[in-house]
Amino acid sequence: MTYMVTVSGKQKTGQPRNRKPGFAFRAAIIATGALLAGCANVHDIEVGAIPDDYRTNHPIMISEKEYTVDVPIASGEKQLNYGRKSIVQGFAAEYRENSSGTMQIMTPVGSPNTAAASRIAGQIKKIITQEGIPARRIRIVSYQAAAQNDAAPIRLSFKAIGAHTAQCGKWPEDLVYNTLENKHYENFGCATQNNLAAQIANPSDLLAPRGMTPIDAQRRDVVIENYRKNGSYATSSN
Fold this sequence. Notes:
Blueprint: E1 3-7, E2 10-14, H1 23-40, H2 54-57, E3 61-71, H3 82-98, E4 103-109, H4 114-130, E5 138-144, E6 154-164, H5 175-180, H6 190-198, H7 217-230
Parallel strand pairs: 4-5
Antiparallel strand pairs: 1-2, 3-6, 4-6
C-alpha cells in the first residue's frame, strides 16, 4: 500500500513508516481491557430492582399470645343455648392443646346484662370443667363495660405460646413508586403469612422437629413376613 505525503511543498510517494502507538490508541486498548474485565465479573453485580422476599418482610414469630373468644349474652337470658355452648367447648379444647395456665371468665359490669352474665358465668365454668380443665385453673373476674346500654359479652381468655406475624395493613408509600422500582410494597404477603401462622397447630414445630414415636414391632414383623412370601407385590396384612 502506498500513500501520499507532502514535504517542503513537494509530494513524494513512499512506504508507510513504523510509528509508535499514540495516546489515543493506548487509551482505547486500556478501555477495552476494562470492559472485558467487567464482563468477567458480571455475576457479582447487585441489581437493586430485585424485589425483597415477603417471608423476610413479614416473618412468622413465636411468642406469647392471648387467645380470646366472646360469648354474647342478652339481659334476659337464663342459660346458654346449644350454639354458644359449642363455642365454649371449642375454646376449652383449644386451651387443652396450647396452655396449662389460667383461663379467665370475664363478666361485664355496668351494662344491662350484668346480672345475666354473672349468672351464666357459673354455667360456663361448669362446661369448661366438664371438658377436662381443672377448676383451680379457672378464674371469674369482671370488667367495666364500655357503655351502659351495651350488651357486653362474656369474654374467655388465656395466654399461651403462639405463632403470628406483625400487624398487617401498612401502606406508608404510594404503590406507584414500588411499581416503578419493581419492588414489593410493604404489605405484600402479610395476609398470607398471617393466615399460615394461624393454621399452625403446634408452633413448636417451627423451632425443632418432634421426637420419633416407637416402632410397632408386631406390625413390622407382619410386613417383613409378607415380603418374604410374596415379594414386593405383597399387599396382605395377615
